[in-house]
Design goal:
about 280 residues; mainly alpha; single chain
Length: about 280
């Protein structure tokens, strides 16, 4: 009889809490590159399923910000008569703020509940669990891109020019995404054990909306409260996206730096917490 072929031993993956170090974080981030195909496939699936058998299709990505813009314009511009910064039409003023805010709130709400719809995957096969909440965030990026086309059209209609300060929109949205990923990882890990999290998120987001300069400018906040107010990282993100893109002025560096610092703190701490809970997710869910 011929020699039997050697059998390659099966590759084992031991799921354990990572070390609390930059090296440990970097290793987990680089490991995601091995699952890039899964990340891409699930994200594409997320987008397709959302609009499958829908008459309006991708137009649904526009309905939420446009509907909120219409409601806020009627209530806060025509009734309450809240002033905007400069001469920006209120509809554009609100819509520009709704883009980073809607991305944030939608991504958080969807990703926090993501594991509950994927129990069959989590309990049967290993992959980095953070892929699931991240795919919801990437799907929200798609909606943000679609909704941004409307903002461009509004700026053309109202003859609002772009300035070089609009380049600050890129790092501002990057901070928005970093904060979103961090909170999504934190909340999705908590949601596996405490289902109250998913129930509380809609209420928290409603309150958070009015604690963020979406329907009013940051300048409307009394100076004596502003130091505490800008501890809300979304305040700096929303305000500076609108300032640089719509108003064409320099960002408010103080509020922006607060957003950057808080996001840089939230992301690694949330990621460490998530990876510590990853080992028991399949048992708890």
């Amino acid at each position: 009889m011929g020699a039997t072929a050697s059998i390659e031993p099966r590759r084992l993956k031991v799921i354990r809490a990572p070390s609390f170090s930059p090296k440990g974080l970097l290793k987990n981030l680089t490991d995601l590159a091995d699952y890039s195909d899964l990340l891409y496939t699930l994200t594409l699936h997320r987008i397709k399923v959302r609009y499958k058998q829908s008459v309006l299709g991708w137009a649904w990505a526009l309905i939420q910000p446009l509907a909120l813009m219409a409601i806020y314009t009627v209530i806060f511009s025509l009734v309450a008569k809240i002033p905007t910064s400069g001469r920006t039409p209120y509809a554009v003023f609100v819509y520009a703020a709704l883009l980073p805010w809607t991305f944030f709130s939608t991504a958080i709400a969807n990703s926090a509940n993501g594991f509950l719809g994927h129990t069959h995957l989590i309990t049967r096969v290993y992959f980095p669990r953070e892929i699931i909440p991240i795919t919801y965030i990437l799907a929200a990026v798609f909606d943000l891109a679609v909704a941004s086309v409307v903002l461009a059209g509004m700026m053309i209609w109202y003859h609002i020019p772009l300035t070089l300060y609009a380049l600050f929109a890129v790092p501002t949205l990057a901070v928005d995404m970093l904060l979103t990923v961090g909170l999504a990882l934190l909340l999705s890990a908590l949601q596996v054990r405490f289902r109250d999290v998913g129930l509380a998120i809609p209420l928290v987001m409603q309150i958070w909306t009015f604690a963020t300069p979406v329907v009013y400018p940051l300048s409307a906040v009394p100076a004596r409260y502003r130091g505490v107010y800008i501890l809300n990282p979304m305040a700096g993100i929303v305000e500076n996206f609108r300032r640089t893109v719509i108003e064409g002025v320099a960002p408010d560096y103080e509020s922006l730096w607060y957003s950057v610092i808080i996001s840089l703190l939230v992301f690694p701490l949330a990621y460490i917490f998530f990876k510590n809970r990853e080992a028991t997710m399949a048992d708890v869910i």
